[in-house]
Amino acid sequence: MGAMLTGQAGAETWTPTREQPVFMLSRFLRARYGRPLRRVMLDLGRTCPNRDGKFGFGGCIYCDVAGSGTGAAPRQPLAAQWQEGVARVRRLHPEGPAAIAYVQSYSNTYPDLLPLRDALDFLAGFRDAAPIVSVGTRPDCFSEDAADLLACQRERFDAVWVEFGLETADDRVQEVIQRYDTLENFFTACRRAKERGLGVVCHTIAGLPGEREDGLRKQVDAAAEAQVDGIKFHQLMVLRRTKLEVMWKRGELSLLSPEQYVTRVADALELLPAHVVVHRLVAEAPPAEYLAPAGWPRKNAVHAAIEAELRRRSSLQGRHAPGEHVSGGRGA
Predict the structure, then answer these.
(1) How many Cβ atoms from other residues are within 10 Å of residue 160's Cβ?
(2) CB-based contact 124:84 (threshold 8 Å)
(3) How crowded is residue 118: how many other Cβ atoms within 10 Å of its Cβ?
(4) Largest CA distance in the chain
(5) Could you tell me if 243 and 179 are in contact, meaning their C-beta atoms sit under 8 angstroms apart?
(6) Domains recognised in the chain with CATH numbers
(7) Could you report the per-residue pLDDT of 174-196, keeping only the tens digit for each?
């Protein structure tokens, strides 16, 4: 089955092959813009209900003080962040579309929408450089008003994406990681976004404490049920200044090896519908912030190992997805 490039990307199709068994974002963007676009990460200085006391303090156990983002705000105003980021990508692509404006840190639709509205007004003036805008938030922070605000941006940008942390499909694990969201909230948020024509990208994590071995496959099942357009795969990492750092120093964590991670992601990709764009296969963190697991290869090597594992199996993204008819084998 050919995979449609969803959202505003046009009617091009992609079919998984042995050489390209995963529908990567770079392939999606090349079909639309003739080249990949680089993310410009932006920090609006927001917070989340796990930090301001609504549910808890200190964030989820794996989230650092920068809210798993840039940490730029309030050190840098938005205009300065944008100018610095777009100057960097313009060195690679002086002409034409160059960037995805990614409003990344914390939950950007919480506790109010004014900073996000102002940021979107600002970014609309740079559509030629950044034709896509993507906004990260928690599912339980994505109100009808937030969905309406993003839907209004569809006339300003080629595509508008909202990125939801799924992280686990097990509400019991939500408690363990002190996240206090629910799978039902994820489905509700995705429905609100899809009803308004927004692109939906979900984030998954493999290897969370308390997660069963099939946890990543369950997350992909949930993502498929929610009809997401894109997905990011992450391994559990221990970063400085997190609750997870304390657990790791106490010897309370069992972290995945690269080989285990490659196997779990390959298993999950076989269940992922072929039209879903894979935005990331593995996470990285700045060396100064990273603690564990030690000895992991670089991102490109893990990416290559995952695709090699699919080839070893003579398999492809979507091979075992319900309702899909993706052919595999050596001749694919």
Answers:
(1) 25
(2) no
(3) 12
(4) 56
(5) no
(6) 3-312 (3.20.20.70)
(7) 999 999 999 999 999 999 999 99
Least confident of 14-18, 207-211, 231-235: 14-18
CA 196/CA 319 separation, integer angstroms = 30
The pTM assigned to this predicted structure is 0.92
**Token pair recorded at residue 159:** 């595509």
Name the band, by pLDDT with cuts 50, 70 and 90, for residue 8.
very low
What does the angle CA 110 – CA 69 – CA 128 come to, to the nearest 5 degrees? Answer: 85
Q: What 3-state DSSP class applies to 226? A: coil
Q: Give the residue carrying structure tokens 């939906």.
A: 200
What's residue 128's pLDDT?
Answer: 93
Are residues 228 and 201 in contact, defined by beta-carbon separation less than 8 angstroms?
A: yes
**Distance from C-alpha of 88 to C-alpha of 101, rounded to nearest angstrom:** 13
Of 14-23, 166-175, 206-215, 254-263, the least confident? 14-23
Structure tokens belonging to residue 23: 């529908």
The C-alpha atoms of residue 112 and residue 135 are separated, in whole angstroms, by 14
Q: What Rg do the C-alpha atoms of the chain give, in angstroms?
A: 19
What confidence tens digit (pLDDT) does each residue in 214-237 have? 999 999 999 999 999 999 999 999
Tokens of 242: 């997190």
Q: Using H for helix, E for strand and C for coil, what is the string for 45-87?
A: CCCCCCCCCCCCCCCCCCCCCCCCCCCCCCCCCHHHHHHHHHH
Task: Write out the DSSP string of 154-185.
Answer: GGTSSEEEEEEEEE-S-HHHHHHTT----HHH
